[in-house]
Structures are given as structure tokens and as C-alpha cells.
Specification:
The protein has a single domain (2-214), classed as Sortase, Chain: A (Beta Barrel). Helix content is 32%, strand content 28%. It is built from three helices and nine strands; from the N terminus they run ααββαβββββββ.
Length: 223
């Protein structure tokens, strides 16, 4: 009888712990969704205000810097249409940022700038499905001023120490990093890396710049 009562209390305790973790997970999901939704609306509004003309674009560039400070340095939104991935990108790759956005690695280039723009995201949230990426998939980085389009060149699994994957490149590039394996329970031991090169950039007027197409992208050598 004593053991039955004790087992009953253990079952109830396990249920309460499970409900607690479920509640915490649900709270984080709601906060993440609310953040993504609010920042997406702000991004769309800023893009509409940009309008045609170099002077207007320059004005929005200055305005967007102020709004980024207010929005914890939101840079824009990443989109991978074939994989149905879409997420707001915020500055930084700390745990708090990655809980509600894809993070821009601060030591890397800005989107559209010469060099390598590094983005990090969780494999079970914003980068869920990234493992199905293929060469030539298109990746868009939408900012209030311009939309930068990249084309995937390669993807590979590396060890966490391979920070050279974020080294600068000779042409505008984009590197996406998440944990691997995707279905691993707990802290995943490896990293999944996707490299894409910029192929065009379109401003609020819709005018496209394709000068980046002919520029090669440096590929990190395997070790």
C-alpha cells in the first residue's frame, strides 16, 4: 500500500513537471510568434514608405537605423521560398536573440556588402527544414531599402570548431549555420552550413542590379 501511494505521487509529480515544461514551451512559442509578426509588419511598412527615388531611399536608410535601435537592431527578413522558410533577422547570435529570430553574426558582413554575411538559427524553429536545401535554391534577404537575392552553392556538415566558414569572401555571400543532426535530442554535436552567393539586388523601385552574378565566391577548403 505504501509503495502504491508513493508511485501515485511520483506519477502526479511527473505530470506536473511535464505540464510546467509544456507551459514554458508554449509561452516561448507565443512570444516568438508575436515578435516575428510585429517586426514583419514594421518591415513591410518601412518598405512601403521607401518609395521610388534615390533621395527617398537614403532617407529610409537613416530612418531604418533609428527603428532598428528601437526594435533591437532588426536587419530584415530571410526567405527561402522552396523550403517555406521565412523569419525576421536580428543583430546578434546570443541565446535571447535566437529564441525569437534568426541572428546575424555581428563579426560578419552586412547583407549586400562585400564579404560574407553570417546568419545563425535554431534547427527546431526558424531553420527547421533547412536540411532539405539544394544547390541553386534561392534565398532572399529583405530589408527596408533593398531585397538581396542569393543562390545556394553548397551545403555541408562540419565540426563546431570550423569557424572559418564565416571568413570573409571576395564577393557578397550569405552563410547560414544551424545545429546538426536536425532530429538530435539535446545539444547537437555538429553544424550544418549553407553557402549562397548574391546574384542580384532590387531597390524599392524594382530596379535590379545583377553585377554580382559574375563574381566568384571563395569556398572554404575542407580539413
Amino acid at each position: 500500500m505504501f509503495w502504491r501511494r508513493r508511485l501515485r505521487w511520483l506519477e502526479r509529480g511527473a505530470l506536473l513537471v511535464g505540464l510546467l515544461f509544456l507551459g514554458l514551451w508554449s509561452r516561448d512559442q507565443v512570444r516568438s510568434w508575436a515578435y516575428q509578426s510585429a517586426e514583419s509588419r514594421k518591415l513591410m511598412a518601412a518598405a512601403r514608405e521607401a518609395g521610388p527615388g534615390p533621395a527617398t531611399v537614403a532617407g529610409i536608410a537613416a530612418t531604418s537605423k533609428d527603428s532598428r535601435a528601437e526594435s533591437e537592431a532588426v536587419l530584415g527578413r530571410i526567405e527561402i521560398p522552396r523550403l517555406q522558410i521565412q523569419a525576421i533577422v536580428a543583430e546578434g547570435s546570443d541565446a535571447r536573440t535566437l529564441e525569437r529570430a534568426v541572428g546575424h553574426v555581428s563579426s560578419t558582413a552586412s547583407p549586400g556588402s562585400p564579404g560574407n554575411c553570417g546568419l545563425a538559427g535554431h534547427r527546431d524553429t526558424f531553420f527547421r527544414g533547412l536540411g532539405r536545401v539544394r544547390a541553386d535554391d534561392l534565398v532572399r534577404f529583405v530589408t527596408p531599402e533593398r531585397t538581396f537575392t542569393y543562390q545556394v552553392e553548397w551545403s555541408r556538415v562540419v565540426e563546431p570548431r570550423r569557424v572559418d566558414m564565416l571568413d570573409s569572401t571576395s564577393a557578397p555571400s550569405l552563410t547560414l549555420v544551424t545545429c546538426f543532426p536536425f532530429r538530435f535530442v539535446g545539444r547537437a554535436p555538429r553544424r550544418f552550413v549553407v553557402r549562397a552567393r548574391q546574384i542580384e539586388a532590387a531597390g524599392p523601385t524594382g530596379v535590379r542590379d545583377r553585377t554580382a552574378i559574375a563574381s566568384p565566391v571563395l569556398m572554404a577548403a575542407g580539413r
